[in-house]
Specification:
By secondary structure, the chain is an alpha/beta fold. Helix content is 31%, strand content 20%. It has helices spanning 22-35, 51-55, 135-148, 176-187, 193-197, 201-210, 213-222, 233-240; strands spanning 9-11, 40-47, 63-67, 81-87, 100-105, 118-123, 152-155, 164-166, 171-173, 223-228. The model has no long low-confidence stretch (mean pLDDT 94).
Length: 249
């Protein structure tokens, strides 16, 4: 498995637009764990407001990422939580040392002097056209993270590998492959905007195959993962593009 794609995709099946029922989301996640595709992180993203429901299920994911959607973070010491994503300017107090924190910010905001073990989270889309950041803003965010050595996660809108037009929202959707390669471009000191805006499938595939190992490692240390409501579609996209191989059951 290429370093570029290893452990790239978090399971956000509970979130729109898929918005699976907890039982359905866990059944899918359990199947994914059994197949053990190395592109998946096997981290199950769960809102803090639904932790009690998660605890009542018969299956427990091997890794959990908490999405703080209420005022307080409930106790979670009995769960395999390894990261917490929260909106706000400051990380919550009292979290275990092994839990990484990601602060959701607008791509136009570039916080500095972040505490150790704290990164940023950027939203790349949503249910309305206005939720999709301009490529210039997303590129500025990427360059800030590379320059200041700030790890980040991405969420929302990254439904396919390559940038494409969504007629239902009349907006260009960012591609997760574009985003990943844009980080590689920034790591190597180049402007990430052309790659973010590219719809040249063949060119993006060629670029992905030519990324040096050192660049891939540095890019993935910074771009930790992104949450996808589908765990199958991005894998199929990468297979069709010839960037990953089929994982047999």
């Amino acid at each position: 498995m290429s370093t570029l794609f290893a452990a790239l995709i978090d399971d956000a099946g509970l979130f729109p637009p898929t918005a699976l029922h907890m039982t359905e989301a866990l059944e899918r996640h359990e199947r994914d764990e059994e197949l053990d595709n190395p592109v998946l992180t096997h981290r199950f993203l769960c809102p803090t407001s639904r932790l009690d429901t998660l605890r009542r299920q018969s299956f427990m994911p091997r890794r959990i990422g908490l999405i703080v959607d209420n005022d307080e973070i409930p106790p979670f010491g009995d769960l395999p939580v390894d990261l917490v994503e929260v909106r706000g300017p400051r990380p919550p107090d009292g979290l275990p040392a092994h839990v990484r924190v990601f602060l959701e910010v607008l791509p136009t905001r570039h916080p500095t002097d972040l505490p150790p073990n704290v990164g940023l989270k950027v939203r790349c889309g949503g249910t309305e056209a206005a939720a999709f950041p301009h490529s210039h803003d997303l590129a500025a965010f990427i360059k800030h993270c590379v320059a200041d050595d700030v790890p980040f996660k991405a969420t929302a809108g990254l439904h396919h590998a390559v940038r494409h037009f969504d007629p239902s929202l009349a907006v260009d959707r960012h591609g997760f492959l574009n985003l990943l390669l844009a980080v590689c471009e920034a790591v190597e000191g180049r402007d990430p905007i052309p790659v973010l805006n590219s719809t040249d499938v063949g060119g993006l595939v060629q670029l992905a195959r030519s990324v040096p190992d050192d660049t891939a490692r540095q890019a993935r240390r910074l771009f930790v993962s992104y949450g996808s409501c589908s765990t199958g579609t991005p894998l199929e996209d990468l297979r069709v593009l010839g960037l990953i191989e089929e994982v047999k059951a």
